[in-house]
TrEMBL record:
Protein name: Uncharacterized protein
Source organism: Mycolicibacillus koreensis
Upper taxonomic lineage: Bacteria, Bacillati, Actinomycetota, Actinomycetes, Mycobacteriales
């Protein structure tokens, strides 16, 4: 059994896994998101339930983690600015290097995760994967018509007869002459 660090739900203790290559353990649980994870317009909010379905495998240089993490997202539509909810599921495949291993010695600090005091912190890997999985311009629905450029009302709720009589500024003077004659 892999235990969870009491203060950080995405920090896993691997003391029971040991350093025997080939040893595997499964982690299947739901935890609260320790921070907001995502982008400006869409993210997993702090405290939202994250479902972890992970396989931890001891390898010669560290611990290989594979599996999925899923959670609900909240966001704001890039076209009509309405709030919406969605769900994101990301796949994780990360190697965490043992202290004093060849992998730790030959890689930069940000290239591979590190095992510190027999614990693995999944938070940065999850931040990276969720950031890549979420769209930069999220939509409430694929065919969102957006906002009316003249009055700003949401076109999805404005109705089919919503329009504005716009006169081309190049012809505005002529339209004024027409009004004077009528």
């Amino acid at each position: 059994m892999v235990t969870q660090h009491p203060d950080a739900p995405l920090v896993l203790s691997i003391t029971r896994l040991g350093r025997r290559p080939g040893t595997m353990m499964a982690v299947r649980r739901t935890v609260d998101a320790p921070a907001r994870i995502g982008l400006d317009m869409e993210a997993i909010e702090r405290g939202a339930p994250l479902t972890l379905d992970l396989q931890l495998q001891s390898v010669s240089e560290g611990v290989l983690i594979t599996g999925t993490v899923a959670g609900p997202t909240t966001g704001q539509c890039a076209r009509c600015l309405t709030e919406f909810t969605d769900h994101v599921e990301v796949g994780l495949t990360e190697l965490y290097a043992y202290p004093q291993s060849t992998t730790e010695a030959t890689t930069d600090a940000d290239e591979v995760g590190r095992i510190v005091d027999d614990t693995i912190d999944l938070q940065q890997a999850l931040i990276d994967e969720v950031g890549l999985a979420l769209p930069l311009s999220p939509l409430c629905r694929p065919d969102c018509p957006g906002l009316c450029p003249q009055c700003g009302v949401a076109l999805a709720t404005a109705g089919p007869d919503h329009h504005h009589d716009m006169i081309d500024p190049r012809w505005a003077k002529l339209a004024g002459l027409l009004e004077d004659q009528q």
